[in-house]
Design brief:
Structural class: alpha/beta
Radius of gyration: 27 Å
Order of helices and strands: HHHHEHEHEHEHEHEHEEHHHHHHHHHHHH
Number of helices: 22
Length: about 475
Amino acid sequence: MFEQLSGRMSKVFEGLSRGERLSEGDVTEAMREVRLAMLEADVALPVVRSFVSKVKERAVGGEVLDGVSPGQAVAKIVNDALIEALGGAGAVPLNLSAPAPIPYLLVGLQGAGKTTTAGKLALRLASRERKRVLLASLDVQRPAAQLQLQQIAEQVGGRTDGLVTSLPIEQGQGPVEIARRALDAGRREGFDIVILDTAGRLAIDEALMDEVRQVRDVAKPVETLLVVDAMTGQDAVNTAQSFKDQIGLTGVIMSRMDGDARGGAALSMKAVTGEPIKFTGSGEKMEALEEFHPERVAGRILGLGDVAGLVEKASEQLDQEEGERVAKRMLAGKFDLNDYVSQINQINRLGSISGILGMLPGMGKLKDKLAGKDLDTSIFNRHKAIISSMTAQERSAPEIIKASRKKRIALGSGTSVPEVNRLLKQFSEMSTMMKRLNKMGGLSGLMRGMGGAGGLGDMFKGMGGPGGRPPFG
């Protein structure tokens, strides 16, 4: 979402002249470019003016430390100002200290993703906090809305040992009656949290606000969370301002942060509404809900990456035991196609390769160079399809796969024989590398031998073309 803004910012800092002190001319020129970059990213004009003014005030005349370029000095000031504009360092947590059942009210316009977000929030609370969560749909306007939430609750409940469930559907009840029944069921049945999913409209109108106000007055929510679609840009900010003025909010959840919008809504939300972004959603999967850390977002905008976010994502999504099992087999030279599929599944859990690159420091330029190339994981899914068309024996011993077997596998997987050949060749090369590593004594032997005979150079010797040229770069 922030790629365009990030690219523009990087060019601004690289263009600053060298010197021991930041001149007013340097800073003025840089801020002109920053202003244009933020306006192009659809950041609200008052926010841009305030941001540029703060940065310029802090930067002009500032000393440049030894070993630090003027661009880096300004980048540090811009980074601090971005964090401030986004709400300050650190995620803003949900209130979990109120007496149970704690009522959470989800509000927003139709199509913003409230119902899916309700399920994501319930999964997060159940899996991380071990809370019993009751989901209740108050949407009697949209056909099958209550049934949709019920199905989501069943899906999430199955993944959390029944900690999440939905309020039974009773026809003919209005939103206020459903809210009362949900809170009563929460008290009687010992739920920790009740999430009330309200109805939306295509646009803000008095009927919508009246309905939400009535539910709010009955439920007395501890958290009133607005779900907005990040793809709608400044309309999302205007929606948030209207709900804040007429209903009152405690936070914002921005859905579809994985889209290609320009990111201005996120940069404007806190400054315009005064309410923090608490979570962001990026995808339809139930686990695709993340805490909003302003310092991490600022780092990604400035090309500094988000290593902490990547580590956190990996620890949540990856199966550590399975990873260790496969790693041991790889180092023992026993890696087969079943293990390869396991690794594909681990990679898919992390999302797109492009998304992973965006969380690594300094990878912005690499992403630009790879623009238009296949940065997603679709090739891995084709490999899975090919491997799933093999027999158990073929997956364990790929060397037995000859011409007739390749034709059968290609036909069964909807691919071609050349694709099957490419997969087998890549796997053979990978297996060879694993065996060489094992002969060197595993990773510890590799590290010991990096500088001498039998080290890294010898491991690559003969693997490429004539003269032992390495097969890459």
